[in-house]
Amino acid sequence: MYNSYINIKGEDMLKELIFTGLGGALVFKEKIEEELKKLEEKGKIDTKDMKSFLESLEQKGKDSDAKFKEELKSTMKEIIDDLGLATKADLEKLKEDLK
User: Fold this and answer.
1) CA angle 12–73–29, rounded 5-degree value
2) Given this model, what pLDDT does residue 88 score?
3) Contacts of 14 (CB under 8 A, 6+ apart)
């Protein structure tokens, strides 16, 4: 029961962290786009350069997101191991052993 509570609270915290990060990234992207449009209107940046910059920024965001997910997955596995919690694979093996 206690482990279930920890698992639920941990999942909630993790979801909040991810959603907060995504929300921040979206706000950041919108602000960048606004500022770039202002520069474009003033003639200080070319449309082609703006699109190239945004594409580069988007790719870096995707790369960063993938890296974050892998690090998070690794950290979660370490925590599960440290707490001695059974993994899905452990439970499947136990089911098979009990048959």
Assistant:
1) 70
2) 86
3) 72
CA distance 76 to 14: 10
Full DSSP string of 4-55: HHHHHHHHHHHHHHHHHHHHHHHHHHHHHHHHHHHHHHTTSS-HHHHHHHHH
Q: Which residues contact 58 (CB under 8 A, 6 or more apart)?
A: 29
Q: What are the pLDDT digits (tens) for 36-75?
A: 888 888 888 787 877 788 788 888 878 888 888 888 888 8
Residue 56 structure tokens: 């580069």
User: Residue 71 carries which side chain, given as an amino acid letter?
Assistant: E
